[in-house]
Amino acid sequence: MSTSVIEPGTRLAGRYRLEERISDSGGSALWKAIDEILARAVAVRTFDPEFPRIAEAVTSARSASRLTDPRLTQVFDADDSGESAYVVSEWVAGETLEGMLAKAPLEPGRAATLLYEAAEALSAAHAAGLSHLCLTPRDLVWTTGGTVKILGIATDAVLGDRQSDDPGGDDVRGLGRMLYAALTAHWPGDPAGSDLPAAPATDGVPHAPRQVQAGISHAIDAIVCRCLGLGAAEALASPSDLAKALRGVPRTPLPLFAGLGHAQPPARPAPPRRPAAPGATQPHRPAAEPERTAASHVPPPRVRGRRDAPPGSTGTRAAPAHGAPGRSGNRALLGVAAAALTVIVGLGAWALTGLRDKGDPNDNVTDKGRQSAPAKPAVAELKVRTAEGVDPVGQDGGKGTEKGRLAIDGKSGTAWRSSYYTSPDFGRLKEGLGLLLDMGRTVKVSEIKAQLPAQSAGAVIQLKIGATSDAGSMQKADTATAGSGSVSFKLQQPRTARYVLLWFTRLGHGSDGQIRAEVNEVSVLGSTG
What we know:
The chain is an alpha+beta fold. It has helices spanning about 55-65, 95-100, 110-125, 155-160, 165-185, 210, 220-230, 240-245, 290-295, 325-360, 400-405, and strands at about 10, 15-25, 30-35, 40-45, 75-80, 85-90, 95, 140-145, 150, 200, 205, 380, 385-390, 415, 435-450, 460-465, 475-480, 485-505, 510, 515, 520, 520-525. Strands 12, 13, 15, 16, 17, 18 and 22 form a seven-stranded antiparallel sheet that branches. A six-stranded antiparallel sheet has the order 1-2-3-4-6-5, with helices on one face. A hairpin with a 6-residue loop joins strand 5 and strand 6. The protein is globular. InterPro entries: Galactose-bd-like_sf (IPR008979), Kinase-like_dom_sf (IPR011009). This is AMP-binding protein.
């Protein structure tokens, strides 16, 4: 069956129903489809029988299916044994980096965070022996659930007939070009890779980001230049090198929903200029400075009345009196005030001396109202030793500590996830499942905060605590319904426990729109005393 005659409604392998053709080029087509067995949206790529690299594409997809980093698109199925070869992968809903940059560049801290997550994901792929080789702003997606996704790992290189003797170098350059685009809203790569405006260049060499957009620090500008081989600094050799470099620059946390915004850092007000003396020579200004100012999208700063307003600003302060007589009057008033203060202090000392001589009848009486109350243990975020997905009656895909640790790794782009289900009541297969936290010792629990995907609204979660890890013997402490992106349990009184369990009794939707339990990050507040 040729790709050109496959129509919406076609079923592959008896379960994948093709619904909408997304793109069609180069002998393959990408479809939005429904997995009718698991009742979830999937992406399906089909191939024309004449496509010369079908076997290679299917093999690369099978290799990618073994990747476990949630920031890499998951491959579910791949087959070339039948009449129609196909690859089935995760359907990713969200906004591409190219779409985010349609109006303006990202704030540098958010751009750094976004590409840090992408670099870590590519590092995981390289550790497994896989690479991308053709990264563009269309391959990075900020999902509707607030996570980073890299599309096309391993398979896009086959589809584009890309090969490399230095995959680490190729991918770090691709990431560097994406970071350049995120900072400037200009694309320094092949024009076919993005619809963004081309980066300004001289003799084919792109200008550094700081020459294109104001507000970019020297540190992050240097990282981009090292990725792209601009300047004399040593080039970065791999995505892991880029991730390591980005750990050292300020990064802004990403929001929990698609659309990162385009807030720019405030411009620093220019210091007032003194008029030059006649014949004086003006200091030399670097030629690049006016260029950065002209290319900047930063609005002029608003100057408000402040105590620390610079000279010449509109800050409000009292105007001094004019002339020497006013200053003399102030000195006279100060003298009178000083004399009066001396008299008052003397009278006070005399009164205290009299009381001391007579003896205060209350000298030996303890003021019970002033006794210090016993100090309460300070409430702070406690360290969670391990996190584990638990499913007492089944083998849910989120079961175990390997998946559970993703909810306590401090990264908003990773998450503990359960398997997919056909309905919020677990397809009537079970009554619940959860995420178990082991604090490592007995603590006093005051509050639990969980960061969830925005689509999880409606999920019902019970908070259970106990001295043992057995879900059945733990005490129910509270119940909450997830809002948009978070859930919080604040106990009226601290509860002593070693184990904390977030027990889902009703599911919401995960970051990919499927029905399941999902927790990006969880924190426990309390004390160890």
